[in-house]
Amino acid sequence: MAARQRLKAVLIDLSGTLHIEDSAVPGAQEALSRLRRAPVAVCFVTNTTKECKRTLLERLCRLDFDIQEREIFTSLSAARGLVERRALRPLLLLEDSALEDFSGIETSDPNAVVIGLAPEHFNYHTLNEAFRLLLEGAPLIAIHKARYYKKKDGLALGPGPFVTGLEYATDTQATVVGKPEKTFFLEALRDLGCQPEEAIMIGDDARDDVGGAQNSGMLGILVKTGKYRAGDEAKISPQPHLTCENFPQAVDHILQHLL
To answer: Alpha-carbon dihedral of residues 3, 9, 10, 14, nearest 10 degrees?
Structure first.
């Protein structure tokens, strides 16, 4: 890893770190305000695929978070960029609320499969349609492969098990575009004009948020909210730079020790 430089940017996960569905993590809004008064850039990086960026922003605004749309970098955006660069016509296994972020993309006579979190569409018929396309040579693009995520009523399956099932059935390897891929983090940092050794990531997912960030050359802070489960910090190597109870505590550490 390159020598650590002065901190210039903080990347922040959304679901499980700042909020869980329609409930904010206690104190998160005030902590974000304190962070914004510091001389660092802030970017929100998310694997959320259940809704488009506009709907996600509306949810955050209802929760009184001071966030602008241009500050949000999503795995949906990264997937759309890949589809456009390859001139693909995807079968979109996405929730209807996320389709807006693929507006204008040609989807007739599909020659690729793009899969995110789509509980309403993860049924035998649609998965079998994807299966047959993949057998014919269509590429499989996974927006991410998270194992699970946190809902108000408990943990829920993420898209990872369904992506892995299609990989297994077709002997195909998916191209993953979201966290924890190094390209995802580097693209977010490129927009901020800083290097990995000048940035830190805060998230509730040890593998995708913290592990992915640290494998990209950043520092990572794991928070014990959202999908966190006891012992998660020991599941990645190197372990997190720090494990905190919540986002406000992570902000306290940054303000007191890293600036």
So the answer is: -130
